[in-house]
Amino acid sequence: MAIAKAERLMNLALCLLGTRRPLSKRELRGSIEAYLEAGSDDAFNRMFERDKDDLRELGLVIETVENLDGDTGYLARRDSNRLPPITLDAEEAAALGLAAKVWQQARLAGAASGALQKLRAAGMPEAEDAYEVHSALEPRIPVHEAAFEPLMLACRDRRPVTFDYRKANAARPEQRQVEPWTLECWRGHWYLAGWDRDRGAERVFRLSRIAGKVRSRAGAFTAEVPDVVTVRETVESWAGETATRTALIRLRADSGYPLRARAISVRELGNGWEELEIPYGHGLDAWLVEFGPDVVVQEPADLRADVVDRLRAVAKD
User: Fold this and answer.
1) With 100 labelled, which of 106, 165, 264, 270 sits at a CA distance of 20 to 30 A?
2) Mean pLDDT of the chain
3) Phi (first) and psi of residue 295, to 5 degrees
């Protein structure tokens, strides 16, 4: 049955691509054997509509044209269905391949894979994957949060959204009204940058702290959307990438390797502890909490207080 459908779709595509004028349903039914075998007009119409939708899903541009007599015809112009020359180099192809992996755990995984296949068929170079055979490591961008897909679509379509968001030091989530700008992945976590309507300011939200469903809202954005570079810098700053000073922490030996990778200096204290000086930016308190009892903040005092508050909030939950 799958082979029969594939043959039917191929015949329909060839008919639509090979004609110079729009073909009516009656003409298409008389040209394709599978349509001739349809038991009734209703069965043919259902089959034709499904096939037409399937071809469009595969990327074929099918035009619907109405003639002077009011009859509807269909055709697929060759110039509308011809890809321009592919000029991607190996590095760009590798970037596209990595971007497609974002969807490996999302609903559009099949569409992303199909898009790559079409580009490769049109001449996109195959990117050499140095991680595929010779190493157990593979670059991945995880997409575990249910909020990722609706927020990605809202960013694309410029649709305001509402969702319940729990701050790291809060016991309960609260509703936020946001005009979403873009999503950024940083240290394995996804962040949404956008305009918080209630606070009248730019804000960044970590997707793993969104509770429940993301709901779309009607209406246009009320704030101007900044360029991509500005948004990315905002996400990095709020997530802790932009350091403005340094912090002194005690770290248990043989633990906290991501912190060691960022350390400016390391000093042994004895009794299984070490002292690290690390860059201090916005969001460092939330990151340090993830290491639990293996980390003790010594200074600055405001960072120590923030970490203690977060740990107390977690203990209450």
Assistant:
1) 165
2) 80
3) -125, 135
Q: In what order do the strands lie in the sheet with 295-299?
A: 265-270, 273-281, 243-252, 295-299
Cα-based distances in Å from 4 to 1, 10, 59, 164, 274: 5, 10, 20, 48, 69
Cα–Cα distance for residue pair 159/165, rounded to 1 Å: 18
Q: Give the span between the Cα atoms of 103 and 152, in whole angstroms.
A: 11
Query: Which residues are CB-neighbours of 14 under 8 A, at least 6 positions away?
Result: none
> How do residues 53-80 score in pLDDT, each as one tens digit?
888 888 888 898 887 677 889 988 887 7
User: How far, in whole angstroms, is CA 250 from its chain's centroid?
Assistant: 37
- The DSSP H or E segment spanning 175 is strand 174-186
CA dihedral of 20, 22, 27, 33, whole degrees rounded to 10:
70
What is the number of alpha carbons within 13 Å of residue 247 lying toward its C-beta? 31
pLDDT, tens only, 215-273: 999 888 999 988 776 676 776 666 556 677 899 999 998 888 888 888 899 999 989 99
Q: What letter does residue 227 receive in the DSSP assignment?
A: P
Max intra-chain CA distance, the chain: 92
pLDDT tens string 160-171: 999 999 876 667
* Alpha helices by DSSP H, the chain: 2-18, 25-31, 33-36, 41-57, 90-100, 109-121, 148-157, 228-239, 257-262, 284-289, 301-316
Strands 63-66 and 295-299: unpaired
- Residue, of 216 and 187, whose pLDDT is higher: 216
What is the pTM assigned to this prediction?
0.48
